[in-house]
Amino acid sequence: MEKQDFIPSFFRFEDLRVYEKAIDYHVWVQMNTAMFPNTETNPFVNSFVLDSMELTTKIATGSSRNKAFFTSHLIEAKAALKRCVVHTTTAQKLNYFSEEQTEHSKTELMELTKMIGALIGSLKENRYNANTKYENKNTDK
Question: Which class in CATH covers the domain with range 12-136?
Answer without folding.
Answer: mainly alpha
